[in-house]
Amino acid sequence: MVKTEVKLIGAWTSPYVMRARIALNLKELDYEFHEEKVGAKSELLLKSNPVHKKIPVLIHHEKPISESLVIVQYIDEVWTQGPGILPSDAYDRAIERFWAAYVDEKWFPAWRGIGLAKGEIAEQKINGAKEGLALLEEAFGKISKRKPFFGGDNIGFLDIAIGCFLGWVKVGELVHNVGLIDETDTPLLAGWAKRFVAHPAVKEVMPEAEDLLEFLRVNFMKPAPK
Amino acid sequence: MASIKEEEVKLIGNLPSMASRKVEIALQLKGIKYEFLEEHDLKHNKSPELLKYNPVHKKVPVLIHSGRPIAESLVILEYIDETWTQEPALLPSDPYERASARFWSKFIDDKCYPAVRKYLTLGSETEVESARAEAQEGLQFLENELKGKKYFGGETIGMVDVVAVGVAFWQQTLEEIMQMEPANSCQDFPLLCAWADELLGCSVISDNLPSKDKFSSLIQSRLQFAAAASAASK
Prior knowledge:
heterodimer, A: 226 residues, alpha+beta, four-stranded mixed sheet, 10 helices, B: 234 residues, 57% helix, globular
């Protein structure tokens, strides 16, 4: 492990925080993790990200960096040992950045909150998740070039950008008893998802769907009336 | 459309689109020759080329380089900077400065533009007030970021300046066209004012922005549309 002057402010439930952690793990970097508590933002967070007041925030040599994809690129550019997180070709980089932007601006917002959704809203979110996954399935076919990951032989920027949501995808599947990533509709993504969650840089920071579900129950679901 | 030769650069864009303007400015700053393919009717009649090269979003701008398409203006700007490495560098070489430029570019696109757009399309008085407050909050962050700098990029124009070109443009035209208090007055935001003057003093920038008359008629038609919509909903 490489010793660093790196602190990361985050929370175990956040897919965006996971992106930063996976990147740090890929580079085998030691860092201090500050877990934010639910409901109250720490002084450190408010001071380090006054614009958005959101996690993750990476603090390197006392200088803060916000926005998960900006952080991942920063990590890749500062610590250049080992395989690059972003591809080396400019066009391949543009394609990965395009799809990462799609994930953040279109796909995740279409199904965010699926764990707590009911009825018609749940239906909309399930459809939203599936429509995006169909596009991502096609994208995987083109980008991976028959290799195990979007990034090729190793996980890269786009793998991280999408894969961080797999815990919450599983929550949606469990709550609504539906397959979102499955062998029938998205066979390529199904194979990729198994490989991604088993990757050493991902395993320890990917939360179990059952734990996320419990988190929702404890913090957001109203108790049954007495 | 003619077949695309190796190394050829084409840009599918649209004159009113600020995102298209940003990409054109970047290409021109770098002195890159390109063919501009104008989308005339994005609402009702998108060209087959646009649908082919940006099937996911069906939006402009789309850069086509050696036959390969790239969409999303921020992605295109980084691609241009990485592919054509002559001056000016849109992104600095220091990783922290690069992270900062990426952060502010995203902030301007995701927060500042929508806030000013909301303010322009108007609605009830309370809506205008809250849109104005939101726009001003964003502008204050940008004002702070300019301290001690001529441009967001430092001594030279960089990616953030290109992305923020609409902010500069509105800064100069809104007060006159709208005849109402703009979201960004020079008293409240002196650094943004000075920056807008510098930026719009560059011919590459000002050549790519609509004339005040064109912009004024665009705003007028938007106001009429908003007024009609609000009357219809009563």
